[in-house]
Amino acid sequence: MKDKEEKRLKEAQDIEKQNKIRGKEDFPKTKRLKTPDGTIVYYWDNKLHNWEGPALIPQGNNKLREYYIYGVKYTQEDWKEAKRSGKGMPWFKDPRQTARSAGYENRILRNNECRKNYTSQGT
Question: Model pTM greater than 0.85?
Answer without folding.
Answer: no
